[in-house]
């Protein structure tokens, strides 16, 4: 079994150019698969709102939901670096809220780091959480919790002026003390520039291959999430079709009397059947 990676490993990988692999997981079995596959990091993203609960977005996800899913993922992947995602309104109101809720992820779910969305505007939150001794991953570019304010789930930094604002956010996150950064839905040239400028590891989701590592949402990767597929997704299998076909086959077998078969039954212990029939006949 591979040794669990720590923050210094991601810095070493940045220095050597070895890419960090990062995937979301929300439940025990998927976390087991991720650890068996050798993922470096797991994010228990607030995308669980859409991928697990069927919400329209991430805004209604609560701290308690995030903690329960982090606990399950930790049980499934005891030797993987796990990141808890701070849901909407768990850190927006004050530095105190931010520290208290970040602390819950560590105390209750044994995660290794937390992630929160925003750059310049959350610098004081990042600083406060880092000062509490918690590893922080910043998240800039397209930040789904504020997609309303961004005018929808749209790529960011596509003009020179907007790109400069994304760079400003990246610098603010590093300056505030975050140990790593995620850049979402930003042109590859902008993300690569940020990766080269920053000393902390920078990860891409929809920001090209010039970063220190990649993140994908597991439900997209395995073809489970069906509402929409962002441009940056690569689908590696189609579990929706596999599961639906398996369920259809089960229905056909039950309706056709082909399931269960003898091999699926618990037979009576030798000699007990005759006794049972005799007992029943006496009644
Ligand atoms: O919640 C999540 O999975 C995320 C990704 C979209 C980056 O934050």
Characterize the structure shown:
The structure is a single chain. The protein contains eleven helices and eight strands. Helix content is 42%, strand content 13%. Helix 4 runs parallel beside helix 5 and helix 5 (95-109) crosses helix 6. The protein has an eight-stranded parallel β-barrel, surrounded by six helices. By secondary structure, the protein is α/β, with parallel strands linked by helices. It has helices at 7-16, 28-37, 48-51, 63-76, 95-109, 123-131, 160-175, 188-197, 218-221, 239-255, 272-282; strands at residues 20-24, 41-44, 81-85, 113-117, 136-141, 180-184, 202-205, 213-216. It folds into two domains: 7-237, TIM Barrel; 242-282, no CATH class. The protein starts with 6 loop residues before the first helix and ends with a helix.
